[in-house]
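Cross-check.
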Amino acid sequence: MALGARPSDVLSPRARRGSEHHARRNGRRIARAFALSRVVTSLLYGVSATDGATYAASAAAIVAVTLVATIIPARRATRVDPTSALRAD
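Predicted model, tokenized:
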């Protein structure tokens, strides 16, 4: 922003990079959960070990938390005064 960038120029790449990183990790988590589903079958009550709705709901919850965790710091970065950020110790 000190070099003339607009807030959207700062917010967009940070949010995109964070979302892409978490999307890859979310895919790995789902694959790992599916692989370990047979181990936890005895712990589940009323849900099958490979229930698609449960996987979709948990993935959606993780995506929502990821978006909040990515966008809040990115928006905060757009509100920092560039001159004070450059002068910081």
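The mean pLDDT is 77. Residues 8-80 form one domain. Passed to J.P. for a second look.
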